[in-house]
Design brief:
With 115 residues, this protein is mainly beta. The chain has a domain of 73 residues. It contains two helices and six strands; from the N terminus they run βαββαβββ. The protein has a four-stranded antiparallel β-sheet. The radius of gyration is 17 Å and the shape is globular. About 10% of the residues have low confidence.
């Protein structure tokens, strides 16, 4: 395990989510989210939770729909990058809209920076 993040989602924001974002499945409906971990903390929170955006939505510079905040409460300093595994799905035949896991190698090109 690399990190533990505690957070909350604002229930009133769910009413404002575009129905096209909801993934319908045999085992229930889901809303894909993205959690952004920041280097700076605001009000004790260093993570933002928002509705997942496709590449096209990001390229079109559409605004994010923030639905909550969170804070990293524990970490061992290791974070892994997601990697799609085509053999996995969520049990209802629909693959997740985001990757699963892949280790990220640290980039030591900046070890001489003063900060």
């Amino acid at each position: 395990m690399a990190s533990i993040i505690n957070g909350y989602i604002k229930l009133d924001q769910f009413k404002k989510i575009n129905p096209n974002k909801i993934i319908r499945g045999e085992k229930g409906d889901r809303i894909p989210i993205t959690i952004s971990v920041n280097d700076e903390s605001r009000f004790g929170n260093n993570c933002d939770i928002f509705v997942f955006q496709s590449k096209e939505e990001r390229d079109a510079k559409l605004g994010r729909q923030y639905i909550g905040n969170a804070s990293v409460v524990w970490t061992d300093g290791n974070i892994t990058k997601g990697q799609k595994d085509n053999s996995q799905n969520n049990g209802d035949g629909v693959s997740p809209p985001f990757p699963i896991a892949q280790e990220v190698k640290p980039n030591n090109d900046f070890d001489d920076l003063p900060f």
